[in-house]
Amino acid sequence: MTDTQQQEFIEHVVNINRVSKVVKGGKRFGFSTLTVVGDGNGKVGVGIGKAKDVRFSIEKGMKKAKENMVEVSITDDRTIPHTIIGKCGAAEVLFKPAGAGTGIIAGGAARAVLEAAGVRNILSKCLRSRNPVNVVYATMDALKRLRDKEQIALMRDKKPQEL
Questions:
Q1: Which residues contact 123 (CB under 8 A, 6 or more apart)?
Q2: What is the pLDDT of residue 4?
C-alpha cells in the first residue's frame, strides 16, 4: 500500500502477555501482544506480535494484522446476515443478528474484532473458554464463514430472488 492509498484503520490492542524464559543468569522477559486491525467497513485482521519490548511487540502485531485482513459479510443495517458459531481450540462464540439500535452486545475480546470490522448491531455469547487469544480467533472463524444472500445464490447457481 502506497502513501496515497493509505487509509485510516481502527486498531485495538486486545491483550498484552508478559512471558519469561529462565536462563543461567536469571529470567529474560518478553512480551506477546494480540492486536486487531480493521477498516470499519467489512475488513478485519488479527495478529500476534512478540518482542522484548512492549512497543515493538504491538508494532509487529499491527503489521501482521494488516497482512492477514479478510472480508466480512455485513448487511445494510450493520449486522450479520445469520446466526453462527465460531470455534477455535476450546473457545466457542455464538453470534446472532440484531435490530438497528441494539449496539454490540459482546465481551472485550470479541467486541474489539466486531468494532474493527464495522459491525454495529449484534448479540454474542462466549460459550466455553474465555481465553482472549482463542476468543479472537473464534470470532474471526465465525466472521469468515458468514455468507449473504448473493454469495449463497452464486454458489447454488440461482438468482437471489429465488432463495
A1: 95, 96, 97, 98, 102, 105
A2: 43
